[in-house]
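Quick one: structure tokens for this chain, please?
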Amino acid sequence: MNNSPCIICGTEKKKSVYLMDGYHLVKCASCGLVSADPQPDDEALRGFYNENYYDSWGGLNRLEAVRKMKMSTFNKWFDELEKIKKNGRMLDIGCAFGFSLEAAEKRGWDVYGMELSGFSASVAKERFGERIKESLSEFDDGFFNVITMFDLIEHLPSPVGILKEIKRILANQGVVLLSTPNIKSLSSRLMGKKWFHVKCEHLYYFDPDTIRLFFHKEEFNVVKVIPAVKAFNLDYIRFQLSTYQLPLMTPLTNGLCKILPEWYLNKNAFFRIGEMLVFVRAL
């Protein structure tokens, strides 16, 4: 293990949580933040996010079915957001194909996206054009009322750096909404290193306590943290478990998909899978 300082408290002392293939998950001895050690370099990170990254969705030929499923999730999350902030300009950082933007636009939001993957951004640009950017520096100070980061912060090698830019482009009383795995969730505690959120591209693993500490250190106030629910269907789960195989669950799901009718495989239902929604304001 290396002795790089914790991004929350600066402590260098860590202890191993899980030994994976070629790296550890380690826990800060002071604040409890869990992270990958060693962190992958830039070249390795770029290699994760090519067109093949979406094989776990069932490939691009299933994009429309996945779109409907994910928009159901985003609408559920926006119901919670609109209890705090109801309208204005919204930016989704890491917008991928733009499904979150489509859901928000239909609810009356003025939407923009940022996406570093050229492949994903090209798909989002087919609908949103020049509203899809490659850098936060392209946006003016105080431009956005809401900034979202869905399934993103755990991927970032430098989450501190992005918060400085978020604070610059966020309007007064603006809200940041993010989703991320909760390493203290029941599914994490039951499954251990086999937890489906333990992936080589996930660099940080927060829980409600460490996410509050992280944002407070960067001069944000966490308004609330709640369990995140997501829409899933069996066909999507089958492809996820083919890419990220789990004992018992992968063969069981494959068996169910062979005997159930096609219409049932694409029927969406909401589940909690060990993630949290975090609502934040800048101080």
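The chain has a mean pLDDT of 88.
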